[in-house]
């Protein structure tokens, strides 16, 4: 766990600079741009190298993410510079999608930083690293100890098996197989980020559409990315969310024997493009929990339920509990629409 006051990480000076919130008014526009970009890059570097961050550090970085909004407010051309900075740090994400995600978040007046893997507040010390398979470099892992732990995960098209109903364990960092050849790392490889576009809808805020058709059910779309929260922190965030504000807190329940495993992911301040996937009463996606290195937290991955046409909006079900007293109106406009959005009981506590 990193210490933000440690002189070696460069954040002590950065934190002091943040205390002023904005550059001096006497600075020229170019000087403001240079200073703000320097701060922004510092945040990106820290987020990239520190995947496990304490709650105090998360609060600090949430505050510092306001820098992105200030940078974009200086002039429109400056946003292109920041997008290029993000592409440099994230690498495989298409520039246009990063730009769309940040621009949409800022229009919702949300300070936001684009990340490509979840930020974890704390690690469960009881979780042990899974053992890896002993496959050779030429193996495809279609019949290894990981993929067959609860039945074969993926078919020859690299799609989720339709009849799959048990837990999914993908090959992990301890496996001997070659990443490129392994067919049991579908969620760790390329997603559909190059095939999606963020749009502004008429009545649902922002949404995500597919540009080219997806032909097969079980196709991997992407992972829901954000801050992994404790249940207490998730409750606190709900209480602090105003009625008019968008809520990007996802609660996923897994039922195992007599216990429920709850995973809370908040994509309001940190996340990726999947934060804009809307609810539908007749969705074309569903969420599947995937284990890779450790039991918790699982990776929450989106897979297709059916064929999806070009320019069709992506959607998944936000839940099943409907109550006219607490649920917001649903605008999915499908023939099976209930008229109300699902809600989680935790929202009311």
UniProtKB/TrEMBL annotation:
It comes from the Eukaryota. GO terms for biological process: methylation. GO terms for cellular component: chromosome; nucleus; SMN-Sm protein complex. Residues 131-190 form the Pre-SET domain. InterPro entries: H3K9_Histone-Lys_N-MTase (IPR050973), Pre-SET_dom (IPR007728), SET_dom (IPR001214), SET_dom_sf (IPR046341), SMN_gemin7 (IPR020338). Its main location: nucleus. The keyword Glycoprotein does not apply. This is SET domain-containing protein. Residues 194-319 form the SET domain. The keyword Transport does not apply. The lineage of its organism: Eukaryota, Metazoa, Spiralia, Gnathifera, Rotifera. Keywords: Chromosome, Metal-binding, Methyltransferase, S-adenosyl-L-methionine, Transferase, Zinc.
